[in-house]
Amino acid sequence: MPVVGDIVRFLDVFAPPELAADWDNVGLLLGKSGAGVRRVMTCLTLTPDVAAEAIDEKVELIVSHHPVMFRGIRKLTDADAEGEMLLNLAASGIAVYSPHTSFDSTRGGINEQLAEAFGINSAQPLRPIENENCGGEGRWGELTSAVTLKSFCRIATEVLRTGYVEYCGLPEAPVRRVALACGAAGEFLEDAVRLQCDTFVTGEIRFHSVLQARTTGISLIVLGHYASERPAVEHLAAVIGAEFPELKVFAGRREADPLNVYTANTPE
Fold first, then answer.
1. Chain segment 233-246, per-residue pLDDT in tens
2. Of 62, 67, 101, nearest to 181 (Cα)?
3. CATH tag, 4-100
4. Is residue 145 predicted with pLDDT exceeding 60?
5. Domain boundaries 107-227, CATH class
């Protein structure tokens, strides 16, 4: 039977911790390396609902893209929701691992998956990581042929199985050279401009960065943080399952985008 440490070692090769941002908290965050594993669940964010699912499903390891204890903790009690959740997981013998920005940046990681899904050819990192030939931050490249911004927005909704995306730019503006970065990644807008991309795609961005994009003349597509990363959680489950076929590996089913959309046409 594989143990937690076996899966950790595999994930550390697939998404090397060296690729993580300096501010990040990646790796094995809770649990014993020597504990046996039969069932693994992946998720985007470890919330109390997701933790309850893991306990109900009797998993031994959660691979959560977003880390717990992100800003560090000084005490671990049931006085707050995260503390109570972690104590419940520990009591149930469930370990927690997070690859976060390592998974964003690695070859075959989230940004590379998005680039492939959107039809971006020969995608390269927006910011290659020095001395690491296995990836870098963000991706950019070119479509085989130009499409309109409106058409590319439609493609994005189909690829991500989401009802909408937000955009800034002229609907008929040409989209050919595209930069992208999953999650909250507005800081890569300047890299997209530097590389003379006509379009920048991200999951989440500040309002003033949207204004900067409009002033600069680059089209912008905002996918939603959850939408830009959740499909990769299912992919990660498949990757782990292929490496450890004796395990039951699945993406959590109770997780959903915490944001809902209300429009003037929403039924009362």
1. 999 999 999 999 99
2. 101
3. 3.40.1390.30
4. yes
5. alpha beta
